[in-house]
Specification:
The chain is built from 18 helices and 24 strands. The relative contact order is 0.14. Helix content is about 35%, strand content about 20%. The protein folds into two domains: about 1-240, 2-Layer Sandwich (Nucleotidyltransferase, domain 5); about 250-420 and about 440-480, 2-Layer Sandwich (Nucleotidyltransferase, domain 5). The radius of gyration is 22 Å and the shape is globular. It is of the alpha/beta class.
Length: about 500
């Protein structure tokens, strides 16, 4: 009988499950099931839909296969607020990371304590993405519901709870809530008390596990629901990008460009990062260090929207973008289609500049790809400012990494080769790495080295795109001069 581990990625859009051989990490099967679609500014999902998607994806992977599941782990979208009763039943739909309705609460928290205080104490400065701001929103708009709450989760915690019955979390995802100190491994209940009022917050919060510590075994009745044999051990799980770093084997000096619903630039470092400008979130990684990152709200959904407007599929869209001449006066896009997190412009909208009557379909496609990439390049430059110049690999992950246009534009803008590795689903692969480490009694870091993925593509720079940078900044910074909520436009 083949012994496998399951790596689970519960993202904004879907649940992906990978089955990997415990011995060598080879991919044996994969399945994906959708989540309900969301559109900011109000972006909410019923957590029960995540569970049903997870069960369906696991059952698809296991169908007709005589496999022994030794372990599994869950990576998931970060920051979302799951407020439940004592039994873990959600009291309201989960507010997701890209729900921007708590922007006023985020601004009030920054004003209350100061940006430097948040960076020093927590490692990041509140934005509408963070769990703490969503809690503040609930306290203001649904105080009776908050009073009924007995447990607080982020998405991967809640799914691990459904698997094991244990209310636990990990250091990486906890560090993105806004009320956890990764430096001291402690919940900052003083912040919750000050912001939301006194109560026994400690009792509502999960136990934070070590990187290689098991959350427990899959409950027998849950194993039957999933279609697996009893006894599988469950890892502590983690945030999506944090586990993706393990999935792709990200090393110090490397930088990852994650091209999914959101766009994320991140690196792994040993020491804490405290960026008082708010450009970089100094969150923790899954192995004891840190994963400084910049996250944009608008990534592949921008190119999806432009492909729809042009009436083409993804492959043709990439061909159009690559066929456009990099004219220095070409159209440029500030890709804030659904507000923005980095920079902090929750009510911003997209702006397309440089249009003339001679505009072509190719130029519009290129503007969309460049607009996404320029926003992320801004994040990369902020990352270099607070860490060190990038001397290692530039690794692309996520759905956008399959696009030749994204790979080429990123190589051209950075002046470095952009590569992909044999980790088509980075978060799911990272979750499988963690599951294997826990099942085998090894460390996540060591298991990452054992399963280091091979390089699959390498795209070298071939065009000078430097001229578009200043034009992009001029257009993007127009939005910083005073975007207002939709209701007051």
């Amino acid at each position: 009988m083949t012994t496998v581990v399951l790596g689970i990625d519960s993202s904004t859009q879907s649940c992906t499950v990978e089955a990997r051989d415990l011995d060598d990490g080879s991919l044996l099967a994969t399945a994906r099931t959708p989540h309900p679609p969301t559109t900011p500014p109000v972006s909410e999902q019923d957590p029960e839909a995540w569970w049903q998607a997870l069960v369906a994806a696991v059952r698809q992977v296991m169908a007709g296969r005589d496999w022994q599941v030794a372990g599994l782990a869950v990576g998931a979208q970060c920051h979302g607020l799951v407020l439940t009763d004592e039994q873990g039943r959600a009291l309201r739909p989960a507010k997701l990371w890209n729900d921007t309705t708590s922007a006023p609460q985020a601004a009030a928290l920054v004003e209350r304590y100061g940006a430097a205080w948040w960076a020093r104490e927590i490692g990041l400065i509140p934005s509408a993405a963070l769990t703490v701001t969503k809690l503040a929103w609930v306290a203001e708009h649904e105080p009776d519901l908050l009073a009924r709450g007995r447990r607080l989760f982020v998405p991967h915690d809640w799914l691990t709870f459904r698997l094991t019955g244990r209310h636990c979390s990990d250091r990486s995802d906890s560090s993105g809530t806004g009320y956890f100190s990764a430096d001291t491994m402690t919940w900052r209940t003083d912040i919750l008390t000050d912001v939301l009022g006194p109560r026994d917050w400690e009792a509502m919060l999960p136990t934070v596990l070590r990187a290689d510590e098991a959350a427990g075994e899959v409950l027998p009745e849950v194993a039957a629901e999933l279609g697996i044999t009893p006894g599988a051990v469950v890892g502590p799980g983690g945030g999506d990008q944090h586990l993706a770093a393990q999935g792709i084997g990200l090393g110090e000096g490397d930088v990852a460009w994650s091209l999914g619903t959101s766009g994320v630039i991140f690196a792994t470092v040993a020491d804490p990062v405290k960026d008082t400008s708010g450009g970089i979130d100094g969150v923790a990684n899954t192995t004891g260090g840190y994963l400084p990152l910049a996250c944009t709200l608008n990534c592949t959904k921008v190119t999806d929207a432009f492909a729809r407007l042009l009436g083409v599929e993804h492959a043709e869209f990439a061909r159009l973008a690559l066929a456009a001449e990099p004219d220095p006066d070409r159209p440029v896009l500030a890709a804030y289609l659904d507000g923005e997190r980095s920079p902090r412009l929750p009510w911003a909208t997209g702006m397309l500049g440089g249009l003339t009557s001679a505009v072509t379909r190719e130029q519009l496609a290129l503007a969309a790809v460049e607009g996404v990439c320029l926003g992320l390049l801004r994040g990369e430059r902020a990352l270099e400012r607070v860490t060190a110049p990038i001397g290692g690999r530039t690794v692309l992950i996520g759905g956008g990494a399959r696009s030749e246009a994204y790979r080429q534009v990123i190589a051209d803008l950075t002046g470095r080769a952009s590569i992909t590795v044999d980790a088509p689903e980075g978060t799911a692969r990272g979750a499988a790495v963690q599951a294997a480490a826990v099942a085998l009694g090894s460390s996540v870091a060591e298991q990452t080295r054992r399963w280091l993925p091979a390089e699959t593509t390498r795209t070298e720079p071939r065009a000078d795109r430097a001229a578009v940078w200043d034009r992009y900044l001029a257009l993007a910074d127009v939005q910083a001069e005073g975007p207002v909520p939709p209701s007051t436009r």
